[in-house]
Amino acid sequence: MIVKEYSKMSKEELAEVIAGLKKQYDDIKNKGINLDMSRGKPSKKQLDLSMPVLDVLNSNESLNASDGTDVRNYGMLDGILEAKSLLADMVGVNKENVIVFGNASLSIMFDTVSRAYTHGILGNIPWSRFDKIKFLCPAPGYDRHFKISEHFGMELIYVPMTKNGPDMDMVEELVRDDDSIKGIWCVPKYSNPQGYSYSDETVRRFAALKPKAKDFRIFWDDAYCVHHIKFDKKDEILNILDECERAGNFNLAYVFFSTSKISFAGSGISGIASSKENLAEIKKHMSMQCISHDKINQLRHVRFFKNINGITEHMKKHAEIMRPKFELITNSFERELKPLGIAEWTDPNGGYFISFESLKGCAKKIVSKAKEAGLVLTDAGATFPYGIDPNDSNIRIAPSFPEIKELKEAVELFILCVKLVSAQIIYEEG
To answer: What is the pLDDT of residues 43-95, one digit of tens each?
Structure first.
C-alpha cells in the first residue's frame, strides 16, 4: 500500500483521514490509560543494577580510605582520593583537577552560579552588582539549566543548536562584544534532548573563546559522558580542560558530572573539574559551607565500581535495557510517520532522550492532546529559554522510565496525536 504525504492530500482525503484518526483517539481516550514520559528517570531495572552498592560496606570491615582517613568522621572537604581518581577517569581529567561533592551535579551548578552572584569570580565584581547579566542558552537544551539562570534574574539568550553543537559563530560574536554575558550552558556529549555530541572543532572553538567579560565561564555539564546506548557507535569528544590549557584559557571552563544515572539517581556522587585556580576559590567558599560531603557514599561507590573498567561494564548493562526502548520509538516513527512527511527526530548513540520535531505550530497541541488521553510528556517549549520554542515544534521524548509494554502504548498514542494534530493543521491551512 502506497502512503501519501499529508501535504499532498486533497481536502477531501484529509477530512477522511482526520475522521478516522479522531475515532482511534476517542477509543484510546476511553480506556483511561495513565502513562508518564515527562522526565528522563532511570527505570526500576536500571536502579536494580546498582543494588549491590548497598552491600559493599558493612559494620565488620574497615571504613578507612586509601590514605587511612576514617570516612565516618569529619575531614577531606574535597573528597577521598580514590573517589577523585574514579570520577577523573570517568570524565577524562586529572584527579588533581577534581572536587567530589554530594549526590547531585545540579546542586554544584546552582552553587557555582550563586557564588559568582554573591562574591564574584577570581576577584571580579559579583554578578549581583550589575544592572543586567546574561547567559547563553543553546537550545533545544536542558530546562533545569535555564531555570537556574532565570532564578538569578539573568537575561537568557537563545543560541541555536546544530549537529556539531551550538552555533559557534554566534557564540564567538556575542561573547566578544558584550561583557554582560557571563556564561554559557553546555551538554557536550549526547546533548539533552537531541543526543548530539560536540565536534572537535566546536570544542576547540569553545576553548579559544575571547570573551569581553573576564569572569565569563563555560558551564560544561558532562552528564552523559559514559551513557552510551550503542557501544559499537559510541561518541567521543575532546577534553575541554586540555583544550583550554592549550589555548591559554586555563580558567575558562567548569566541568560538572555525577553518577546519578549510573548508580542511584538520588544517591550517587558528583563532582566538578576545573583549573587549580578555580578549584582553590571554590574550596575556599566550601569551607564556609560544610566540613565534608558524604565520604561513606564515596567509598561505597569506589568499592563497587573499583575503576573505570567497572563503570564501563556497568554502563553496558544499562545500555542493554535502554537500547530496545530507543529502537522501539525510532522504528515506530520511521514506519508510521516518515511516509507522511510530518515530523523529524534524532536517533542518538547515547544519552537519555530523543528530540522530536513536529510541523511548525503543532508541539503544544500534540502534548495537550496526549495529556488529555492519559500520556504526560515534557511541556512543549521546555527545552527553550523561558519555555518559548519559536517554532512550537520541539518535543522531548524520554524513553527510559516506562517498561517496554507501557512504552509501546505510549508511542502508539503519541504517534496518533502527531498524526491527528498535523492533519488538522494542514487541513486548516490548505
So the answer is: 999 999 999 999 999 998 889 999 999 999 999 999 999 999 999 999 999 99
Work out the average pLDDT over 1-28.
91
Residue 68: what are its φ and ψ, rounded to 5°? Answer: 95, -5
| Predicted confidence (pLDDT) per residue in 321-359, tens digit | 999 999 999 999 999 999 999 999 999 999 999 999 999
Closest residue by Cα to residue 153 from 108, 112, 117: 117
CA distance linking residue 366 with residue 250, whole number of Å: 46
Tell me, what amino acid is at 150? E
The answer to whether 148 touches 109, Cβ cutoff 8 Å, is yes
Q: How far apart are CA 430 and CA 428, in angstroms?
A: 6
Q: Which residue has the cell 536517533?
A: 347
CB 264 within 8 A of CB 53: yes
* The three-state (H, E, C) secondary structure of 366-422, written as one string: HHHHHHHCCEEECCCCCCCHHHCCCCCCEEEECCCCCCHHHHHHHHHHHHHHHHHHH
Under 8 Å CB-to-CB from 295, ≥6 apart: which residues?
65, 69, 71, 72, 76, 79, 80, 83
CA–CA separation, 172 vs 165, rounded Å? 13
65 CB burial (10 A radius; 0-12, 13-18, 19+)? buried
The residue to which cell 518535543 is assigned: 395
**pTM of the complete model:** 0.96
CA distances for 126 relative to 253, 278, 280, 323, angstroms: 18, 15, 18, 45
Maximal C-alpha separation, the chain? 79
Beta-strand relationship, 98-100 and 375-377: unpaired
How many Cβ atoms sit within 10 Å of the Cβ of residue 8? 10
Q: Could you tell me the end-to-end alpha-carbon distance of the chain, in angstroms, rounded to an integer?
A: 25
pLDDT band, residue 2 (cuts 50/70/90)? low
Q: Which amino acid belongs to residue 270? A: S
Closest of 114, 144, 106 to residue 268, by C-alpha: 106
Here the cell at position 424 is: 488538522
257 beta partners? 271
